[in-house]
Amino acid sequence: MKTSIFIIIVLVSGAFAGFIHGTVNFAFVEPYLDQAIGIENQNLFASGEEEDTPEFWVEYEGYRVWQKSGQILAGVILGMSVGSLFGIVFAFSKNALPGNNIVKKSIILSGIMWVTLYIIPFLKYPANPPTVGDGETVVLRTILYLSFIAISGLGAIAFYKLSKKFQNKKKLVSLLGYAIFISVVFLVMPENPDEITAPMNLVNEFRIMSVLGVTSFWVSMGLILGLFWNRFESHKETTPHYN
Length: 243
Prior knowledge:
By secondary structure, the protein is mainly α. The protein has one domain (about 5-130, about 195-240). It has seven helices and no strands. The protein has helices at about 5-45, 55-70, 70-95, 100-125, 140-165, 170-190, 200-240. Helix 4 (about 100-125) crosses helix 5. The radius of gyration is 22 Å and the shape is flat.
């Protein structure tokens, strides 16, 4: 496959998947953000940090409209970034992935990356609404979360490399090794330093919707890139060559 075609496929697939992700977030996650921010506003009024005035609400509504209007665009941009990583990993690993066609291989890889880069880190550091948590610890929380993603991803690559040295059922040894490794990391990594003060039903519902949004991205990414890749590879194979 030509490099130019590869780049187009990866970016377009990422953009479509990001668009779906942004749309799902806009439809299902944003209402919970509104509730969480509403609670935060009431706390600000009660503490005297802000006054419940028409001017406050005009400024607030303008800010939220700006945030919501950029939701889908942000999803597209993020999708293209993550899609680029996915495309590169797929290009190098597709021959080793299980599955009897490109689409299945792509979906399997997206499932693997969904688990290692999202679900496992999420179990350790589950998503919270933006207003939950101390603003002074946001850098620490970000470092912990990104560190866990990096450790999980690099660990998966290392044990995948190890699995290539084994045959048949012995490959399960590397899978078991990764499970033990990530379990140890899970226990060793520090807990989230912030206490949750928001209602837990709101936090839990927000987390469920967040999982739905990110899952929609990975499913879409695997399916769309697989279909595009299969389409262009099939076209290449069926295009007649003339001497």
